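Lay summary. Proteins are chains of building blocks that fold into shapes, and those shapes determine what they do. In this project we predict the shape from the chain. Here is one chain we studied, written as its sequence of building blocks.
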Amino acid sequence: MGVVGPNGAGKSTLLRLLYRFQRPNTGHVRVGGQDIWSMSARDAARRIAAVLQEQTSAFGLTVREIVRLGRTPHQSGFATSSPRDKQVVDRVLDTLSLHLLANRDFGTLSGGERQRVMVARALAQEPQVLILDEPTNHLDVRHQLEVVSLIQSLGLTIVVSLHDLNMASGVCDDVLILKDGHPQGFGPPDSLLTDTLVSNTFRVDARRERLTQSGASHFSFTLPN
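And here is the predicted shape, written in a compact code that computers can read:
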């Protein structure tokens, strides 16, 4: 599910509610039917993982050590990694093609590589829900494409905030569009993201064009007169 909207629409606030950083004033956030605030923080971290825009400086940790941190919710006290933890970390490194980088210092990686490592750490939690906050922010075109391809290949429930409507339309099964903290619509992007709704939400003149060869659609934007 993609969450889109202009700056200040409430995208990041919604995500903070979903990954249990902020408690809702009203209503409930449930995963598998269970309120996430009725469980311990450790149990919530076994169900929900988040990859935020702010990346850790890593303090000299290697890629493998960063990914291993994702196993923390499954460990008790000061217990060392179990054979099961090692198995999960190895599997995640393979899934994200990070084995060749496993012993590299995190600080030496490119932006796209770092983003893959942070997703790997989240996947090592073995969550039911993965939250991604602007995962392509500050990345060049190649690394944006790498992250998009990665998102499409993961095969679990993902909630992702995006600024790029064309990316949201191409990647997401459903889109929630926000403005001033209120939902403007929810549903499949092909039917939801109309010229009128996008224009009113973002205060631009939006025009959706169908690309003849691929069948995909693309929004173009101009400032209103």
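What the prediction tells us: The CA atoms of residues 9 and 179 lie 4 Å apart.
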